[in-house]
Each structure stands twice: as structure tokens, then as C-alpha cells.
Design a protein that fits this description.
Elements (H helix, E strand, L loop, with lengths): L2 H13 L2 H8 L3 H15 L4 E4 L2 E4 L1 H22 L10 E6 L1 H18 L4 E6 L2 H9 L5 E6 L7 E15 L20 E5 L4 H12 L5 E6 L2 H10 L3 E5 H9 L4 E2 L7 E10 L6 H17 L1
Parallel strand pairs: 3-4, 3-5, 7-8, 7-9
Antiparallel strand pairs: 1-2, 5-11, 6-9, 6-10, 6-11
Protein name: DNA-binding transcriptional LysR family regulator
Organism: Sedimentibacter saalensis
Family: Belongs to the LysR transcriptional regulatory family.
């Protein structure tokens, strides 16, 4: 049984597309098909359902998946076990949500480059939903997201920490002088909210709808930094992770509103897709990112 065929199997399983897998691997499509057929003959079972242009793993394919990951990962480690971190090359492709980019990436990238000076990093800053799609399609090796805890059936969580999500206001806003704000008092207030795909924004709007409270977001955007800056300048409200505004709160530029009926937490998670083979370089990046998260998030 060839390691190459197992690696091809993992790529096709991740992308669920022979054409895309051949492009990613640099093989012809016929070569990819031949490798899968050879592997199926060796294991004595069909690994993929092929219905028209759609493919999916069979039960045998699902059962083979963890063994293939372990074998390919072990093979990669055997190739590199005599090499120091400084000697390893290659590229790691990492995704991160915008709100965590400035907080975590500067220190992580410096630490990683000092440890793996020959490894290139490709960094993708985008929304949680987009990054999850990229992980599912094998475009990214790992990502740092803020979301509800992800399903263990599809995702491997390398590290997670729960973070409060808070409503913030300009210090001159009338709510800033209050010890407590009732949830219904948020009705009609001018909110700056994150885009629809931001999980904490989705949860907040769901909670408000359940209480039949009408929100008045005058702006939806992707940048937590811009949302914080707008609240610092005008009497707007916004809902943001505490880590994104902690410094401004400590400096007195914004206030965190106390709303007993609204206790919202989200998980900052370093995740991989379950189909992903973890190389020493990817593992090293996640280790450095985890260290920085423990200090900053």
C-alpha cells in the first residue's frame, strides 16, 4: 500500500471532487482516479460513492479515514524526524478572523518564524463562515475562529477558550452612567453590528427576536476595529468580543454595559478539519498560536 495513494485518498475525501484534488496534488485526473482504484483493490472495498458528478465517502471510506491520516502523518514525521525545526521548509496556510488578527498574529508570526525560519506562511483574514469553507475544501491547513463550539464529528479543536461578548457604548451615552440596563431598553438604539455571518452577531439578533425586541442597526460591517472606533467617537452601541475592546475600556474610551439578561460567550478556537493531515510545520504554528492565546485572549 503506497503512502502516495493514501495521501490522494485524503485529498479527495476532503474536497469531494476528483478534479479539484488532481489540481491541488499536481496530478492528472486519470492519475488520481487510478490511485484511488488501486487503493480500493488493496483494501477490498469501494471507498467512494460515485453518483453522477457527486462523490462521497462510503462507510468503508469513513472507517479508513483515521487510519490513513495516522499513516500519512507518521510518514511525514519519519521523513522529518532527524531535521531540526530550523531545517524544515514548506508552506503553512492559516486562516484567522479579523477581530483576532491584530490581537494574536503579530506575536505568533514572529515566534513561528524564529522557530521555523525556512517555512513560508500564507495568512487569510476572513469571516468565520468563509474560513470554515476553506478548511472543508482543503484550502487552509488550520484556522483561528470565534464561534460556538464546533462539532467533533467534523472538526479537530487544537485549543479553545471561552470569551465574553459585550455590548459597548460611548462614555457620553446615557446608558454609560447606569449600573444596569434592561434588554428591552436596547430597542431603537443605533447599533453598529458585525456582518450577518459573525456567529455572535447572529446569536444576539436571535435573542433579541425571541424577546420581540426590535434592533436598529444603522451599519453592518466586518471590521471590529472600525466598530470600536465609531463607538469611541459617537453615541452608538455595538456588540463585540471583550478581547477586541479591552484596551479601550481600560483607557476609558468606551464603556461595557451591564445587561443581566444578556450573558453571551463565544469560543476562540484553533481548529482543523478532521480530514487534515498535521505536518510538523502546521503543528508548530498551532503550538505558537496556542501560547499567544493563553497570554492575550
Amino acid at each position: 500500500m503506497e503512502i502516495r495513494n493514501l495521501n490522494t485518498f485524503l485529498k479527495v475525501a476532503a474536497l469531494q471532487n476528483f478534479t479539484q484534488a488532481s489540481r491541488e496534488l499536481g496530478y492528472s485526473q486519470s492519475n488520481v482516479s487510478a490511485q484511488i482504484q488501486q487503493l480500493e483493490r488493496e483494501v477490498g472495498a469501494q471507498l467512494f460513492n460515485r453518483i453522477g458528478k457527486n462523490i462521497s465517502l462510503t462507510q468503508y471510506g469513513e472507517e479508513l479515514l483515521p487510519y490513513a491520516q495516522q499513516i500519512v502523518s507518521t510518514s511525514l514525521r519519519m521523513e522529518n524526524f532527524l531535521k531540526s525545526d530550523e531545517e524544515l521548509g514548506g508552506t503553512v496556510r492559516i486562516g484567522v478572523v479579523e477581530s483576532l488578527f491584530e490581537l494574536l498574529m503579530e506575536d505568533t508570526l514572529i515566534r513561528f518564524h524564529q522557530r521555523f525560519p525556512r517555512v513560508k506562511v500564507e495568512l487569510d483574514v476572513d469571516a468565520t463562515a468563509t474560513l470554515k469553507d476553506c478548511l472543508q475544501n482543503g484550502i487552509l491547513d488550520a484556522a483561528c475562529l470565534i464561534d460556538d463550539p464546533l462539532s467533533k464529528t467534523e472538526w479537530r479543536c487544537w485549543h479553545a477558550v471561552n470569551i465574553p461578548v459585550v455590548v459597548i457604548a460611548n462614555p457620553s451615552h446615557p446608558f454609560s452612567e447606569r449600573h444596569e440596563i434592561k434588554l428591552e431598553e436596547l430597542a431603537g438604539q443605533e447599533f453598529v453590528l458585525m456582518e450577518e455571518s459573525a456567529p455572535y452577531s447572529v446569536n444576539f439578533q436571535r435573542i433579541m427576536a425571541e424577546h420581540q425586541i426590535e434592533l436598529k442597526p444603522f451599519l453592518k460591517l466586518q471590521s471590529t476595529h472600525m466598530a470600536k472606533r465609531l463607538v469611541e467617537r459617537e453615541q452608538f452601541l455595538s456588540l463585540l468580543p471583550l478581547y477586541a475592546v479591552q484596551s479601550a475600556v481600560e483607557q476609558g474610551h468606551i464603556k461595557v454595559l451591564q445587561i443581566p439578561e444578556l450573558t453571551q460567550m463565544q469560543a476562540v478556537q484553533v481548529v482543523l478539519h478532521n480530514n487534515k493531515v498535521v505536518t510538523p510545520q502546521v503543528e508548530g504554528f498551532m503550538e505558537e498560536l496556542r501560547t499567544v492565546i493563553r497570554h492575550k485572549a
